[in-house]
Write a structure and sequence with these properties.
This protein has about 180 residues and is mainly β. The chain has a single domain, classed as Sandwich (Jelly Rolls). The protein is about 0% helix and about 65% strand. The protein has no helices and 14 strands. The strands form two sheets. The protein has a seven-stranded antiparallel β-sheet, with no helix packed on it. A hairpin with a 3-residue loop joins β10 and β11. The chain is globular, with a radius of gyration of 15 Å.
C-alpha cells in the first residue's frame, strides 16, 4: 500500500513502472486493480486521516491491459463503502457525484476522451464552500458544497471495471495531499 493509505477493497500495491518510468516523479507507481466487474464495488483505498478541507493532486494512467470499460477517480468525504462523494473518469467522460445508501447520484458530467497509456493529472480542491476538479490544470467541475450530503470524511482513490470478468488496472503517481485535520 502507498504510505498513509488503507485498502478498503480490491488489489493495491506499489510497484515499478517498467514502461514509462521517466514520465513521473519516481520509477514506482501505485497500481489499483479491479477484477470484479461491479460498479457498486470498486477497488478503493482511503487515506488514513479524516480531513475537513482537502487539496489533493495525483497523476493517473490507465494501462492498455485494462478493459475498455474502466473507471477511476478520487473519492472524498468518504463515510463508508455505501456513502461518499466521487469524481470519476472513464474512456469517454468525467463526472462528479455521490453515493448515499448505495444509490449513486451524478451532480454533473461532461464528455471527454481519455486514452490508455497516457498520464493525466487529476486535481481536487475541496473546502466548506466549493469543490473544484481540474484535469491537466484545466477546471472541469465547480460545485457548491454549502448543502452537501456529507460535510467531511476521508478521501482516497478508486478503480472499477464495469465489465464482468475483465480486469481494470490504473497506475497512480505524484500523489500530493494538503489537508486540514478535524
Amino acid at each position: 500500500m502507498p504510505y498513509g493509505f488503507s485498502k478498503i477493497d480490491g488489489s493495491w500495491r506499489v510497484s515499478k513502472d517498467p514502461i514509462m518510468a521517466n514520465e513521473h516523479s519516481v520509477p514506482n507507481v501505485t497500481s489499483g486493480l479491479d477484477i470484479d466487474g461491479h460498479d457498486s464495488a470498486p477497488s478503493l483505498t482511503i487515506f488514513r486521516t479524516k480531513a475537513e478541507y482537502v487539496d489533493m493532486a495525483l497523476k493517473l494512467k490507465v494501462l492498455n491491459s485494462s478493459s475498455p470499460r474502466w473507471q477511476t477517480g478520487i473519492v472524498f468525504r468518504y463515510q463508508d463503502t455505501e456513502n461518499y462523494y466521487f469524481t470519476k473518469i472513464d474512456s469517454q467522460s468525467a463526472s462528479i457525484g455521490f453515493i448515499k445508501d448505495c444509490v449513486e447520484s451524478t451532480l454533473v458530467d461532461t464528455n471527454l476522451v481519455f486514452l490508455s497509456d497516457i498520464w493525466y493529472t487529476l486535481k481536487m480542491r475541496c473546502d466548506t464552500a466549493a469543490t473544484d476538479i481540474y484535469l491537466d490544470d484545466a477546471l472541469i467541475f465547480h460545485i457548491s458544497t454549502i448543502n452537501c450530503v456529507f460535510p467531511d470524511g476521508f478521501f482516497g482513490m478508486l478503480v472499477s471495471s464495469r465489465e464482468s470478468g475483465i480486469a481494470a488496472t490504473v497506475n497512480f503517481d505524484d500523489i500530493l495531499i494538503d489537508y486540514k485535520l478535524q
